[in-house]
Every structure is written in C-alpha cells, then in structure tokens.
Amino acid sequence: MGLVSFKTKPRLRRPLRLLGERSPLDLLDSLTGIQLVDDILGRIEYGGFS
Hints:
Blueprint: H1 24-27, H2 31-45
C-alpha cells in the first residue's frame, strides 16, 4: 500500500458527525480510535452509508 501523506488528505482532518465531531486523524493515536475509523471506512466501502 505505501505511505500516505496526511498533508494531501484534507478529508482526514475534517470533523465527522459519525466520529462525534472529531476528525479521523484525531482518532489514529489509539487502538480503539483506529478500529472505529476502520469500521466506518468498511461501512463506506460496502455501501453501509449512502
């Protein structure tokens, strides 16, 4: 997959209602936060959010 530059991904800094008005980037400092972001990305990928 390779390294991702967060400077080029402004959507990772945008607060989301699904994350309690926190940004995905804010949550990546804990295992629980990573799992939450991963779950939401999985739902988006498989059409769980439309």
